[in-house]
Structure to design on (435 residues):
């Protein structure tokens, strides 16, 4: 009973950390780093370091090892018989245990994994016939980590050009690529109504992007205060700028980058599925290893890009100027503080997300993801970062309906589309959403 009582807390913390992650990243993008006192909005430069933000994410993921280490020390030295651990770490084959014979985490039979506290399930090893993921095999996780690098960096670049809510909604395109790749590479079967659901998701993403392009958000890039004597001049200049503004094109480019990034994220999920179908490892350790591999590859890439592009005249103060990025983080307190908070929120989101993934149904997870997007949208509106758009509601409604239809939360509208048997999950191991 106590373990079930923890689930609402875990859901609340997953929502809080997930919402904070997106909003903090957008807040960081809005921080002025050059020409902040200029009356010309075109000369103001804001924090634009998507590669550094990717490194922040991997540091947060690698921080999951702190949880693993703390739990190991606590279990080994302080709480060998703690009630919280019962059912989570009982030795397989012990004489006084009759519940460790079946350890299928999918819920087919009773197991120690099922009886573990929801907060401990990311730390519970799965004892089945799979090979332990140890030794050189751990380096297999570098493959999904590299996909995560490409996907996260593209999404961070896209977030520079779109509002936080449009960013979060566009990420809904992930289900399209996961479905396609699962059919092609994992040989899963998708029913007719699920294919129609994927087309509905595509339509929803397109409408959300169209809403952002038609009505860009001036609030997303707050301007410095203008003296009264320059107000008329500022208005006139703003009209000129608006006439030739590429804001709509930037929004479309941002949406396309975020949607395209889902190809890499879907590839990451499929690779993780392929690896974890053959090898066994605690979910939180999967995140921790990917965080280490991802950070090392990102750091090496940052050095190479800085030497080849960032220090040139064309690349100076750009995305790959590592020296400028470090200066901005160390010189501006708001950027440094948000960097730390982003790392914490990433680590927390992974821990709470994994706890929920293995404790509730797919229906509940889809509803939680929908609530996360709604909260991001509401907070962004409240902060004045974006304006309300009716067309965005239409796109979001299609996204939610398509996702719910695909996950069998709502019934297909036509009886001919109703399946005769329960479909096989696309990803048996439940994908680990990292941000």
């Amino acid at each position: 009973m106590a373990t079930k009582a923890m689930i609402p807390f875990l859901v609340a913390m997953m929502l809080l950390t997930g919402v904070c992650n997106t909003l903090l990243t957008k807040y960081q993008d809005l921080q002025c780093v050059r020409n902040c006192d200029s009356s010309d909005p075109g000369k103001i430069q804001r924090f634009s370091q998507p590669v550094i933000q990717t490194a922040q994410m991997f540091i947060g993921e690698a921080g999951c090892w702190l949880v693993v280490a703390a739990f190991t020390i606590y279990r080994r030295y302080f709480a060998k018989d703690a009630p919280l651990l019962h059912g989570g770490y009982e030795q397989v084959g012990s004489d006084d245990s009759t519940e460790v014979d079946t350890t299928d985490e999918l819920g087919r039979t009773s197991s120690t994994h099922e009886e573990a506290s929801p907060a401990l399930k990311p730390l519970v090893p799965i004892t089945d016939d799979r090979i332990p993921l140890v030794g050189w095999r751990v380096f297999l996780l570098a493959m999904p980590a590299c996909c995560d690098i490409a996907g996260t960096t593209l999404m961070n670049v896209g977030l520079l050009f779109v509002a936080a809510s449009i960013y979060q909604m566009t990420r809904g395109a992930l289900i399209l690529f996961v479905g396609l790749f699962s059919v092609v590479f994992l040989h899963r079967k998708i029913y007719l109504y699920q294919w129609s659901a994927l087309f509905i998701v595509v339509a929803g993403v397109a409408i959300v992007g169209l809403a952002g392009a038609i009505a860009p958000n001036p609030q997303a890039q707050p301007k410095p205060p203008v003296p009264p004597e320059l107000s008329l001049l500022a208005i006139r200049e703003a009209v000129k700028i608006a006439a030739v503004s590429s804001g709509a094109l930037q929004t479309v480019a941002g949406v396309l980058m975020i949607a395209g990034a889902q190809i890499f994220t879907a590839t990451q999920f499929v690779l993780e599925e392929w690896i974890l179908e053959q090898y066994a490892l605690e979910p939180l350790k999967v995140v921790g290893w990917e965080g280490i591999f991802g950070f090392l590859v990102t750091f090496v890439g940052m050095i190479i890009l800085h030497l080849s592009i960032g220090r040139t005249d064309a690349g100076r103060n750009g995305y790959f100027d590592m020296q400028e990025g470090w200066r901005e983080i160390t010189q501006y307190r708001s950027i440094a503080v948000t960097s730390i908070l982003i790392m914490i929120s990433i680590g927390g989101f992974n821990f709470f997300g994994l706890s929920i993934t293995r404790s509730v149904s797919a229906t509940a997870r889809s509803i939680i993801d929908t609530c996360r997007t709604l909260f991001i949208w509401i907070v962004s509106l409240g902060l004045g970062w974006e304006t309300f758009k009716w067309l965005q509601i239409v796109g979001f409604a299609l996204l939610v309906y398509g996702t719910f239809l695909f996950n069998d939360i709502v019934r297909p509208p036509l009886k001919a589309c109703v399946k005769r048997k329960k479909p096989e999950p696309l990803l048996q191991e439940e994908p680990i959403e990292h941000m």
